Cellobiose phosphorylase
Amino acid sequence: MSRGGVFLGYHFIDEDGSFVLEEPDNSSYLYLPLVNPAGVMSSITPDGHGDNKLSQDEFLLPPVSACDLHGQAPSRNFWCYIRGYGPWSVYGQSAAQESRRYTDHAEPVSMTAGPFWQKIMRTCPETGLKAEVLSFCPVTDTKAELMKITLINEGDKPISLVPLTAILLFGRGADHIRDHRHVTSLLQRFRITEDGIVLTPSMTFDERGHQVNRESYGVFARQDANRHPDAAIPLVDDFIGEGGSLLWPQAVVHMKQNDLWKSAGDHAEGKEGIAALRFAEITLQPHKSTSFQIVMSYNDDGKEYLNRERMDEAFLQMKEYWSMQKSILFKTGDSNFDFWMQWVTMQPQLRRIYGCSFLPYHDYGRGGRGWRDLWQDCLALILNDPEQVRGDLLSFFAGVRIDGSNATIIGSRPGEFKADRNEIVRVWMDHGYWPYATIQLYLDASGDYDFLFEKNTYFSDSQLQRGELISKKQNLTPDHQLMTKNGKPYEGTVLEHLLVQQLTQFYDVGDHNHMRLRGADWNDALDMAADKGESVAFTAAYAANIGDMAKLLRHMKEHKKTDKVWLAEEILLLLEVKAKQYESSDEKQQILKEYCEKTGSGVSGKRKAYPVEKLASQLDWMSAWIQNHIRMTETVEDGEGSLWFNGYYDNHGDPVEKSQDGVRMMLTGQVFAILSGTATDEQVARIARAADRYLYDQKVGGYRLNTDFHETKMDLGRMFGFAYGNKENGAVFCHMAVMYAYALYERRFAKEGFKVMKSLYEQSADFDSSRIYPGIPEYFDPDGRGMYTYLTGAASWMVLTVMSQMYGVRGYKGNLQLLPQLLAEQFDRDGCASVTFHFAGRKLNVVYINRNHLEVGDYEVEEILLDKTKLSFDFKKPEIKRELIKDLSKDEIHKIRVILQ
């Protein structure tokens, strides 16, 4: 991020962001995703731990949580029984190697990795045998994980050895890691083939209704060109032996005991499985090598990769595929930051595949993507290619209920929604905020205002009145669609869906006339104040949405898109309200109740025209009322020049944040007070001082989510039961920290925003402290370790902030705006900083040229050249018209030089 930045631990080695890490096995909890478009979701550690699955019900390898990465034997292993030496694991996973790890006889180990592959290199000093273990997934429709093991004799004497795989086979759903683990093992059926072992359970075990199983799981292997295994053991008990273990299996230690080894055509059943595939003894001459191709797959997929050349081709194809996915590339004065950002830009794509489940730290949920997550993941995807996500954005609106709440889990099929992953009646009051914020970004990036008039259905289930009522009489359709009184699915425009979300939320208030907290807001751990809790933080956030919708409507009218909008007639109940009624929380609640009761069993299907200017004026009133109310009632001062906003009320109806008797401050309320414009410029400066004084901790990565309340606050949320400094209770929670930076930049407090971003980057990149691969985690714990890596909304907001705020490169009403806020230290020695990206279907390279190394605030855009053509522009808001960009060739990268003076 600044010139001379360095990493501790790993170092980058190429333009793809590949890196080398020495002694990776001396760091706990490291894992890399291995993934492909076919749906394989794997995780792998430097010593072979991790799992592999297609879904919650289809695990090829045993499911793991983070604590299993060091507490259990690995799920992948490969052994060499070396004559005259004994058992040796290419992953270092033998009892003998483990005992030597922290002695002078420890084996040299290094790792090279990239998106999304790893190669482990390990040498046995006593014999000179070196192993290289390459792991990745092919980027085809093949449901497989591939592993190539190369053995090299680096000594000066021949080495005789017997090689064999040892890969655990689980072959069932994650629930059975404890629920009926033994019983489900009785269903296992193993078949030995020429190339490996296939597990096909007899049935899928489900006490609600057992089914015939049609899924198989296999491990296959060959040596070099075409040498098959000569024997196999499919059962763990037989492999480890009585009293043995996976770290010292008797089948390897006592290689001469051959009576348990089986041949092609043999079968086994009724126990836990392993793919132990033994090859014939070989002798490696000095400086010679041999390789083994291993395929872990579903339903016999991927056997073509048992050919060495095909596997090598697949590896190169995989590297090229993931390199092509990185469509935003930054260049600053710190090349390490640039490479690190490449990994961050990939994280939203991982969330699209994994959701918030299926990696070791993400051991909650059963798959599917959460409502809030999918909208925020789209932020980064929109920056890459708005057209790519248009269909997804439209389909998401089918999850909105007519009462403004929504289904919280999105299924694997377009338009598939579930009320909640745990079947709990729950309303997150922030959920209506994110769709509009995301759609606004989409409209600015694409100029596609016709999108607002696309239609979709509403979600309908037994939850009514924003979760207040459960109806068993509800007439539900198979697709959970809201029906009209005459029995037809009702469809409303995207604009109508967005209005319903904002308007219902405006009236859903508590005693202090701020929006009710209900089940929680963005902070899921504020989940114990459903009765009297209020979220001032997101009340401010909604005020921004409502005000921005008014501007959007006027823009559409101005450009003759429409002078009226058609709305379901029931929605007019929320619009025909006098401003004086805003002052009464009771009246607002009654208005919402009447609306919910009128729409609870369906809608009439009739639509009414509503004048755009009248609607925009109504929204302006609502937004202004909220902001004024918060400014008048929720400021907290410490008497030393700092100020912040109270962000919450607890379940006793008391304000949560205060300055007396121990400062209580939370970051979320400050973020949305700043971002929404509720805080004045003078207040923003005072909030920043308060955050620096009470929340900033450089040792753990920057700004904590809250101060220590020194209380298990049972009237607000589970977070206060967590040890302070962890997760939502006072950790540096990267998602909200990045949003704090974004808010500061949005208000032109660039230096303060940069401090936030730099702290997060440096903590992530300091491997000695964070102990994570490149990327941004969910949070940093009290020791500064990065936690919950990869699957975090912080990544989308990091990309969005760097792109649209630091670089100031963003869409604005369909045009390309250029408003940089880069600090002097972010430019290279020549005074240049650049970003390569797609806009309007063209590939662009924006280069900012700051020859005099001026500081942010001291420079302005002086000149813009598109390729070699000098452009005219508005100096207050420099931008390039969309039509000009669309006239450019699609076949080349077009350079935009921006001179700063």
